[in-house]
Design brief:
The chain contains 6 helices and 3 strands; from the N terminus they run H-H-H-E-H-H-E-E-H. It is of the alpha+beta class. Keywords: DNA-binding, Transcription, Transcription regulation.
């Protein structure tokens, strides 16, 4: 096979492996949901319990828990336990910076 043919098929050193493609697409999927964006934005500077997040964002606790589970599986948020409460905070500076820049871009006139 010629080099040009391999490149046309996408077989070159710049190809992304399947795991990387999956992680990137899931990250963009996470950032493609308004509720998850609101939660991540809230967690930008502080940690909050599920109940606090639900109250502040006027969401049902079950909705917040579901979205936090999705974000935790992608390692975008983390939690710590204090008694019976879990307190969530962001866990990925890269994604948080990308979110902040995207919000700033959207607010740019």
């Amino acid at each position: 096979m010629s080099e040009e043919y391999e490149e046309a098929l996408g077989k070159n050193e710049n190809d992304l492996d399947e795991e990387t493609l999956f992680i990137v697409s899931q990250t963009f999927k996470a950032l493609g949901d308004p509720t998850r964006i609101r939660i991540l934005n809230l967690l930008f500077n502080n940690e909050y319990s599920v109940n606090d997040i639900a109250d502040i964002l006027d969401l049902r606790q079950s909705t917040v828990s579901h979205q936090l589970s999705f974000l935790k599986n992608l390692r975008l948020v983390k939690h710590r336990r204090e008694g019976t409460f879990l307190y969530y905070s962001h866990d990925d500076e890269h994604v948080m910076n990308m979110l902040k820049q995207t919000i700033e871009h959207a607010n740019h006139s």
